[in-house]
Amino acid sequence: MLYRFDPFRDLDRVSEHVPDGRRARTMPMDAYRVGDELRVDFDVPGVDPATIELTVEKNVLVVSAERHWSTDGVEIVANERPQGRFTRSLFLGESLDPEHIEASYTDGVLFVRIPLRQAATPRRIAVTPTRK
């Protein structure tokens, strides 16, 4: 139904443990099914909603966002929160309808709703008795 693809995910995990005081730019997510839709929630705290972009091409959903803060005129004491562009790619299975994706952003969480295709919804088939 949903396939995650992040070729640098393992590299990011390793870099989170490198003792240089910097952390990888990750975009944690949860994916779950509710009724006839798939919901994906991305943690993007501190992101300006105007920088959030969702694109779909050939059943690949790409989610990207940016977080920056100005360091002009300040002395940085600690800089542990990742800055820059964050991106996640999700492969959408055949059962999902990429034409009707909806997204909203509240309190640092991007909520994405992807409906199932009607053909992917299980349906009951009636069996009629045959006459001899």
Taking Cα atoms only, what radius of gyration do you get, to the nearest Å? 20 Å
* Class derived from helix and strand content: mainly beta
- The CATH class is identified as Mainly Beta
Second CATH tier, the architecture = Sandwich
Remind me, CATH topology? Immunoglobulin-like
Major beta sheet summary: 4 strands, antiparallel
Trace the largest sheet across and list its strands: 1-6-5-4
Task: Summarize the model shown.
The chain has a single domain (2-18, 30-68, 83-120), classed as Immunoglobulin-like. It is 5% helix and 39% strand. It has one helix at 9-15; strands at residues 2-5, 29-34, 37-43, 53-57, 60-67, 84-92, 102-106, 109-115.
Describe this entry's structure for a reader.
With 132 residues, the protein is mainly β. The chain has 1 helix and 8 strands. The protein has one helix spanning 9-15; strands at 2-5, 29-34, 37-43, 53-57, 60-67, 84-92, 102-106, 109-115. A 4-stranded antiparallel sheet has the order 1-6-5-4, with no helix packed on it. The chain has a 4-stranded antiparallel sheet with strand order 2-3-8-7, with no helix packed on it. A hairpin with a 2-residue loop joins strand 7 (102-106) and strand 8 (109-115). The longest helix is centred in the N-terminal third of the chain and has 7 residues, at 9-15. The N and C termini lie far apart (43 Å).
